[in-house]
Design a protein that fits this description.
This protein is of the alpha/beta class. Helices cover about 40% and strands about 10% of the residues. It has helices at about 30-55, 55-75, 85-90, 95-100, 140-150, 155-175, 185-200, 205-220, 230-260, 275-285, 305-310, 330, 355-365, 450, and strands at about 105-110, 115-120, 265-270, 290-295, 320-325, 335-340, 345, 350-355, 370-375, 380, 420-425, 430-435, 440. The protein starts with about 30 loop residues before the first helix and ends in a 5-residue tail after the last helix.
């Protein structure tokens, strides 16, 4: 009698007694199908685990949580033959109606718990909540600065850069080099978590990135034979020199160049609030020039109110008109010059500034009104940006400023309020860029590093 033959499974395969009939093997599945199957299995396990103590309601909550985490990862489910799956993703499903999400899952959530709007905007930077977690050895000055950034108590590229460098001076003075290490190498390791903490509070600006890059260069060039305290004092002096030369003195030169464009009887239009434009207007007034200013503003921050307060206070106030962005077309008929600030400027001549700047520049260009951008060279970026969608930042709902009796808009089920902070103005709508090295046409912005004789700004 022949011996019975024993069939052995391949070494990599495992028996799957619970495999549903008609389901293909994992070897024949694509990577996306296997990922979808794993997500379904995780959701089923979570539902079973929650069903024990809490019943069906807890299971639904766990299933909803698993689905939302799946959307955050950016994996969109494929239609399958599973009837339960089709009911979850169909437009008429009850879960979609109760959760207030789009039927196609286009509303995603922030990891901190707040909604970030449609998934198309999930790459935009969103400041963390006020009490975001402190991880690592973070200096108290940096913790305090991170809170001020996240609450938008410190706004503007210049103010944020000066505050960051001032906080790093405190970090450097309180730093002690460990044994068997050198300051020029270990201090950069010590600064990395400080920088990460500030970025977690609010995305880093181009000006901050350039200043931090210059600081790291100065640290790496520090003489290892210097006494530690002398090396720290030297670095603090380098920081003070950077602030004085690249920001304070640069602003003074820009005020002089831009002030020559203001004549008696001019009507200057400016948008939002730029510190260098504000100083230029005040200096021109001190020189005895008679002109008026139109301050155009918009949500979410309504920064123009602070500019209006600054221009109209003092012994010799400037005649001003305050208006919101929708009133711009009716105001441009009497404008002679447009002065705007910049968050950063790119090598293709595009200006990255407060949301609404592009609209002001385009409408002014259409009416043949010169558009002058006041920008320091340390805000220059060697990269290229073609629109304000590839890179931007969202203002959290708590920072939206009320305007009169108009209620502040709030997100509701089925309605998500988005407040992008910046937009990009193409170089074709800019007449000239005023920097500390002179007036530069937008087409020649890429020559700024050559004019400064530096590779790092």
């Amino acid at each position: 009698m022949p011996a019975p033959e024993i069939l052995q499974q391949p070494s990599g395969a495992q028996p799957n007694a619970n495999k549903p009939a008609g389901q293909p093997s994992q070897k024949s599945m694509t990577k996306a199908e296997r990922r979808e199957l794993q997500e379904k299995q995780r959701a089923a396990k979570a539902a079973l685990k929650a069903q024990g103590p809490g019943g069906g309601g807890s299971a639904a909550a766990a299933s909803s949580k698993a689905a939302s985490s799946k959307q955050v990862k950016g994996t969109q489910p494929k239609p399958s033959g599973d009837p339960g799956s089709s009911s979850r993703h169909s437009g008429g499903g009850g879960a979609a109606a109760t959760s207030g999400k789009d039927p196609h899952g286009t509303i995603s959530e922030d990891p901190a718990g707040g909604k970030r709007g449609p998934r198309i905007f999930t790459h935009f930077g969103l400041p963390k909540s006020i009490g975001h977690t402190v991880k690592g050895d973070i200096h108290p000055a940096v913790v305090r600065l991170g809170l001020l950034f996240s609450e938008f108590k410190i706004c503007g590229a210049n103010a944020r850069c000066i505050a960051t460098l001032t906080a790093f001076k405190n970090v450097i003075q309180d730093y002690t080099t460990p044994q068997h290490n050198t300051l020029s190498r270990h201090l950069m390791t010590h600064l990395s978590p400080q920088i990460t903490h500030l970025v977690s509070a609010r995305p880093m600006s181009i000006s901050m990135g350039n200043a931090i890059r210059q600081l790291k260069l100065e640290i790496s060039n520090t003489d290892i034979d210097l006494v530690e305290q002398e090396a720290k004092d030297l670095l603090c002096r380098k920081i003070d020199d950077y602030i004085r030369e690249r920001i304070i003195m640069a602003d003074e030169v820009i005020q002089e160049f831009a002030g020559k464009k203001i004549k008696d009887g001019d009507v200057i239009l400016t948008y939002a609030r730029s510190s260098v434009v504000e100083k230029t207007l005040l200096r021109a007034r001190e020189e005895g020039k008679k002109f008026s200013v139109i301050v155009v503003d918009s949500r979410p921050l309504l920064e123009g109110k602070a500019l209006l307060r600054s221009l109209t206070s003092g012994s010799d106030p400037i005649p001003c008109t305050y208006a919101l962005l929708p009133a711009l077309p009716s105001l441009l008929t009497e404008v002679t010059n447009v002065f705007i600030g910049a968050h950063s400027i790119y090598s293709n001549g595009a200006v990255y500034s407060r949301a609404g700047t592009a609209l002001v520049s385009m409408m002014a260009k259409r009416r043949n009104v010169p558009v002058v951008v006041c920008c320091e060279t340390y805000k220059f970026s060697e990269g290229i940006l073609v629109d304000g969608f590839g890179k931007n930042e969202l203002a959290p709902a708590r920072t939206v400023q009320p305007h009169g009796s108009t209620p502040t808009p709030a997100s509701e089920p089925g309605l998500e309020v988005l407040n992008p902070l910046y937009d990009l103005t193409p170089p074709t709508f800019i007449t000239a860029v005023v920097t500390e090295v002179g007036l530069i046409p937008p087409s020649s912005i890429s020559s700024i590093p050559l004019a400064l004789g530096k590779a790092i700004l």
